[in-house]
Each structure stands twice: as structure tokens, then as C-alpha cells.
Design a protein that fits this description.
By secondary structure, this protein is mainly α. The protein has helices spanning 11-22, 28-35, 39-52, 73-81, 93-101, 109-124.
Length: 125
């Protein structure tokens, strides 16, 4: 994973911050100031290093570990089966399916995006 362009610390910068504190005897506050980050951020990287080692300094995904509102496979399959509703405009089939199922459109947005691609793909053939 890559750091975003505005990140103050890359994994090498984090390793330098940790090295300054652990190996060179700098205070965490001084090392954080030298790295251009807040003391809280500096302490965060020190704690991660102490608990996880070098691996803790690598970038992580910000994606949540779980999505409790995500549709179940059964719900998503139901939408797929309902996408051909008579007399509905083709581009609205996915939205009609969610409406007919009485579901929250925001919860089903990723599934709807996939269905829109299927519907538009069906029109090409």
C-alpha cells in the first residue's frame, strides 16, 4: 500500500522517528517535532513499533474489518433475481428492485452498481 501524497511520514520516516527515540535517546516529543508530526502521532508510531515491531510501521488499509449494514448474499441474490421488473425503464431496474424489496438504497449501493453494469451490458448484446 502506498502513502498518500500529503502523508508526513512514510514507513522510512516512521522508522527514523523510532530509531531516534529507541537508539539515539531522543525524547518522543523532540523526535516528533523533528519529523514534523504531532506528539500524539509520534507516540502512536512508537507504541505500534513496541507492540508489533517493524511490521507496525508499514502502511495499513483504512477499510473497515467488517460492514454490519452490508447486504447478505441472500439479499444480494434477491436483488439480482428482481432486476427485471415489467414496465420499468431499463436504467432503473436496480433501483426498482431495491424499492420492491423494501431495502435501504444506501446499504445496497455497491450491489446496485454491479447490477447497473449487468443491465447496461445486457443492452449491448
Amino acid at each position: 500500500m502506498n502513502s498518500h501524497k500529503h502523508a508526513r511520514l512514510t514507513p522510512k520516516g516512521r522508522a527514523l522517528l523510532v530509531s531516534r527515540v529507541v537508539d539515539q535517546g531522543w525524547t518522543a516529543a523532540l523526535a516528533s517535532d523533528a519529523a514534523g508530526v504531532s506528539r500524539r502521532t509520534g507516540f502512536k508510531w512508537l507504541v505500534r513499533f513496541k507492540t508489533e515491531g517493524e511490521v507496525g510501521l508499514i502502511d495499513r488499509s483504512s477499510r473497515p474489518l467488517r460492514s454490519p449494514r452490508a447486504p447478505t448474499p441472500q439479499e444480494q441474490g434477491g436483488l439480482e433475481g428482481m432486476r427485471r421488473i415489467p414496465n420499468a425503464p431499463e436504467y432503473l431496474y436496480p433501483a426498482y428492485a431495491v424499492y420492491a424489496a423494501g431495502a435501504d438504497p444506501e446499504t445496497f449501493e455497491p450491489a446496485l452498481q454491479g447490477l447497473r453494469q449487468v443491465v447496461l451490458g445486457d443492452r449491448d448484446g
